[in-house]
Amino acid sequence: MANVAVVGSQWGDEGKGKIVDWLSERADVVVRFQGGHNAGHTLVVDGKVYKLSLLPSGIVRGGKISVIGNGVVVDPWALVKEIETVRAQGVTVDHTTLKIAENATLILPLHGELDALREDASSAVKIGTTRRGIGPAYEDKAARRAIRVCDLTDTELLKRKISTLLDHHNALRKGLSAPLVDGDKLLAQLLEIAPKVLEFSDIVWRRLDEAKKARKRVLFEGAQGAMLDNDHGTYPFVTSSNTVAGQAAVGSGVGPGSINFVLGITKAYTTRVGEGPFPTELFDEVGEGLGARGREFGVVTGRKRRCGWFDAVMVRQTVKTGGITGIALTKLDVLDGMDELKICVGYELNGKKIDYFPSNMADQAAVKPIYETMAGWSESTFGARSWADLPAEAVKYIRHVEELIEAPVALLSTSPEREDTILVRDPFED
């Protein structure tokens, strides 16, 4: 019996929500292991739409334990609001169904404010942050001045930690000509929200060890995509955490041997939100068409996504850096009706052909895609539930993608509905 980590293989927005929900029905425990409420999953279950940012996707299914791991940065006010929203939709959220790691870092109002202040003040590189305080919270965690869930249990400790935190933040705000943070007000805010968070606080690493001993199926749910990884992505246009599958162990308190299958969610074309290099981006009516048919708008921010052709070089690289066992190919139907399709199979950089995505920021911006052209198909793939339902040219496209990225298709998603899925290889039975 395998435990599965689900990660994005591109820049996020690959359709992880549906796949995680599809897998979570058979999992016993679903774990979020990195990121914050800057990422979103849209789930469609029996016609009802759930939009989740912090809560693991398993929360909408009864009989599961949902875990927010220590690698996640938690905005307590956003968390409580999201819990209230899903409860209003009939979802049971209590201390038996939701566990939050006691050593998870908190996002405070000052983090979101600093996010916006620095982005607005920057005259050089703008990252395209969601301004939700994710980066500044991770900075405080790395600098050992963060306030964590467990700190909410001790008022005197909380006072001292706030004082230490504000020594740093108020100096920054003074330099940015922003009002200083009132420590007493922040303390009052935290003490007010504390009971609503501590209700779910738990020793998560122990709960996961108990699940392992009981041979429970655990699903590790990533946010964003591999090219937004703080080490392996398009730095500095990345998120503030590691998004590759290796973080699933670190961000939840289990050993790497607890992860048996890594499923990389992969869109049949490429999209990106925010700033940063995008070699296959399309600025013509083809790109506009992909965006319109794919309804490419961010779940959390509503921002329009940039669209382009499938980049096999990039995905092959994320297969390697993320240890991806197999992919779930999504949104194939968006390519329906196109006369021809292009796939990026290499890059040209300074007159030379390369077969990898470079780390240097200037080189990333300078690479030019080298394309192969394939025939499209006129038939619909929407809602297909077997290979026999797919046009021959669509099957050829899929097989060529597998060959180029050096990873097999384990799942094929053909609509937002969870039943419209072709299972090739069951990750849980690997």
From TrEMBL:
Pathway: Purine metabolism; AMP biosynthesis via de novo pathway; AMP from IMP: step 1/2. It is an enzyme of class 6 (ligase). Keywords: Cytoplasm, GTP-binding, Ligase, Magnesium, Metal-binding, Nucleotide-binding, Purine biosynthesis. Plays an important role in the de novo pathway of purine nucleotide biosynthesis. Catalyzes the first committed step in the biosynthesis of AMP from IMP. Belongs to the adenylosuccinate synthetase family. This is Adenylosuccinate synthetase. Its EC number is 6.3.4.4. Its cofactor is Mg(2+). The active site is at D13, H41, K141. Substrate binds at V299, V300, T301, G302, R303, K304, R305. Binds 1 Mg(2+) ion per subunit. IMP binds at D13, E14, G15, K16, N38, A39, G40, H41, T130, R144, Q224, T239, R303. It holds the Pfam family Adenylsucc_synt. PANTHER family: ADENYLOSUCCINATE SYNTHETASE (PTHR11846:SF0). It catalyses: IMP + L-aspartate + GTP = N(6)-(1,2-dicarboxyethyl)-AMP + GDP + phosphate + 2 H(+). Mg(2+) binds at D13, G40.
